[in-house]
Predict the 3D structure of the following.
Amino acid sequence: LIGASLGPIYGALSGLAFDFISIMINPLGSFYVGFTLNNILVGLIPALVFKYLFKRNEKFNLAILVSTLMAYLLYIVTVVGLMFNYSKLEEGIASVINFNPLIFISLIIIIFVLVLLYAYKRGIKFNNDFTLLLLSIVLIEFIIQGFLTPLWLNDMMGTPIILSMQIRALKGIVMISINMFMGYPVFKLIK
């Protein structure tokens, strides 16, 4: 929200300050530059989205949002599909878990429709601010939580990248909704 309100420099500096303050207050292990980069990008991505897309046509921004959501949906289906479509050997017996992607896609679409209905009932209009904030949140979940965090965890502790991506893909569905409907009213107050 700071980056979206104040610009890229303040967004990046707020991410850096957040990282250093959180390390000083509650150190959970050693310092790792990858997570510092994540925090900087969390402040920088919304700032860049608002700076370069704010004056664009609302239909153009909505098209970018829809294409980003479709890419994120494809990522979720692929990564979660890997979790359910694998053969596992347990004591010499192969057990196969089958996953129907249509059921999973249907669940995601139902959740998305419920979120839209909630937004409609609360009177939230899909104006340019709403679209750009949602785009920022999806990009953060997609780039940082979906790709960079699993990479850093693998580098730091040897956590399997695919396993970490699967957990974050499922978490991302929930976090986008929570961040949007808690962040949008706060953003409107700040702006």
Q: What stands out?
A: The chain is about 80% helix and 5% strand. The radius of gyration is 19 Å. Strands lie at 86-90, 93-97.
